[in-house]
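Reproducibility note. Readers wishing to regenerate the assembly model reported in the main text can use the exact inputs given here. Chain order matters: entities are listed in the order in which they were concatenated for prediction.
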Amino acid sequence: MASPVHLSHGLWTHPLDQRHRVADIGFWRELGSLLEYGTFDELFLADVLGAYDVFDDGLGTAVREGFQIPALDPLIVLGALADATDHLGLVATFSTTYEPPFTFARRLATLDHLSNGRIGWNIVTSYLTNAARNFGLADQIEHDARYEIADEFLEVVYRLLLQSWDDDAITADRDRRVYAEPDAVRYIDHVGSRFRVAGPSLTAPSSQRVPVLFQAGSSLRGLSFAAKHAEVVFVGGSTLDDIRANVDAIRAQAAEFGRDPDTISFLAGAHVVVAETEQAAREKAADYARYRTPREALTQPARTPDLSRYEPTELVEDIIRREDHGYRLLIREWRPGQTVGELVAKAASSRKGIAGDWSIVGDPVQVATRLEQIADYAHLDGFNLSQDVSFESARDFIELAVPELRRRGLARSSYRDGETLRERLSRDRSGARPHPTHPAWQVSSPVR
Ligand SMILES: Cc1cc2nc3c(=O)[nH]c(=O)nc-3n(C[C@H](O)[C@H](O)[C@H](O)COP(=O)(O)O)c2cc1C
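Running the prediction on these inputs yields the following structure tokens for the assembly.
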């Protein structure tokens, strides 16, 4: 996140940490070139549209801790990174709940042009009440209604980016004085229950047309949204069996939507501390722990439920259906049919806690072995790595873990020139555009 703290609570106080520099464009140049040196797939930026003012002291805790405030606009940061890098995929979060789709589709396509097809969009519906209050609302729009808005928002984006311009519209023919062929550009005339958008799109087709769609919804509605739209899913679960079950469930549901389920990729969150030896890695993890904000609870009021409010026998899915939990009830830790009591017992025995990523501390061989085991068992395509200390966490991973992963054939050692992010990430490597079975095409006339 373009903020001193996303999930590395307190670690901005570590003497080596550079996160106080996030408003300096040099920070992003340095991070971009480091990640390209490590041949990472992409850089992912989270985002929120409001402050966490849910603590006893209102804004005080979040502001004092640099907890997701101040925060820069990630789409603009991607613009800077598009210039600072040549190969790295660039993924930013944007919420479908508050701003209209027309301007967003234009910004997304602009970034995809400027980066030569390296953009991804993490689709979120937002979960902070303060965000609602920044857009003229007294409170949040009801949870499932936010996903309904998201569905129509996506339909507008698909139509603008796929239907409005033909691929060969721009001829830039000086002799005929025709820049773009008028027959090849059209209105979309979208009239829905939430949006009315005439079009045409102001942007001509970029190489991916629709940037790669990421999603991490965890409610039942969020999961079905992922099954319908997502090409890359941030999947969770407190055990490997849970992750695998979530992957398989989303794939099965995607097939029901008529999609080829093998075209969806799955990433789990992972948190890696690696050093030359296991002992050194443990010491490094202990050093980080000294700087971590002791209030482990920092994110709790906003992100996790107070499960003691419910009967242990109550089904978790009933609570989610009944109440507007947003991010607070993390499905990553529950499965259909599970009770509150079972969820609490599992969270207590889990190495990850209710909202954690996979935490791996070790030497390069241990780290690579563990990542490989997790990915193989849970049918994952990769990991979304979080940084404790910027840039030390990324540098350690690149210098120590990446060579071992390369030796095992699990990480690339160079980029393919001109490859779009979709070509890099899609399991079938089928092309720069969404797969033919993706619903983006169902709302669109065929691109001529
Ligand atoms: C890896 C990951 C990154 C996420 N990033 C964001 C984010 O940047 N902004 C946000 O509002 N929600 C983010 N989320 C939350 C979800 O995308 C989703 O909006 C949230 O869980 C609420 O939907 P749900 O009720 O379906 O769970 C993230 C989740 C995961 C797992």
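We highlight two features of this model. The pocket of flavin mononucleotide is lined by residues 46-48, 93, 122, 124-127, 143, 216-219, 221-222, 234, 236, 269, 326-327, 384 (CB under 6 Å). The chain has one domain: 11-441.
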